[in-house]
Amino acid sequence: MAVVPSEHQPLTRDFAVLRDLWLHRYLTSLQISRLHFGHLKLAQRRLRKLTEQGLLTRFRIPRSKGFGDQRWFYCLSRHGARLLSEAHGIRERILLPAHLPTTGGFLTHHEILCDFRIWLREACQSSPRLSCRFVPAWEEVSEAGSRRRRVAVQLPASGEQYIPDGVFSVERGEASAALFILEVDRSTEPLERANGSSIAAKLRNYRWVFDDGFPTYADLFDREFGGARMLWVVPDARRAAAILGLACQEDLASVVWATEASTLRSRGSFLAACWSVAGRDGFLSLGD
User: Which of 13, 22, 43, 235 could connect to 33 by a Cys-Cys bridge, CB 3.0–4.6 Å?
Assistant: First the structure.
């Protein structure tokens, strides 16, 4: 452990904050409060102290970039990465973000993805009989010291890869396991387009994964899966309806579920009825 003045010695909770900033790259003060403090003002005071001590870097996108309310984001500083590296034996250079984001669009997508991961963590904590493992599009660390896309599935028809925003499994002991594939949508991609990226193209790729691509995820989680749900986090009900309509066209109505990003700000629960499914009245929970 690096030697630092005693009045600046990080607390156990501080190291937990540093570790989550490594795992998530960038977090808002509200997200860090939700993970470790339970009270925003308390989190803000401690985050200011850690920033003053040089363990964290605080930044925000200027309003001129179109990011809106200028929330503060935090990430590891070089000093914070060094302490975490020495504490956990992880190479310092892969703990630090390569650079700070310069566009609000990326941060908005990233923030929603982190909201979902926090929601999922809370859901697991509230259901002790369940265990969950989330694998993001980019892994946090690898043996070679570099990051790679562990959740990518090779598409044989095009030679391209299908890369969701994350994949997670939920297990109830040894008896059963469910696989979920996550997509975060901000309404920036067209629903349909003849060439290039679109929601319809993603759904067609997922249909192939659903039929033939599961060995990739069976190897990743060391479990056999008979199928998976594709979860879409969307800005509003109108976008959810549009995506669910496309899912019907691709014969994926029962396995494509959607929820609004705002629901992730409530405490996570597998029993929370917040997911829309085509052809179903009301909302379903992940436990259904």
Answer: 43
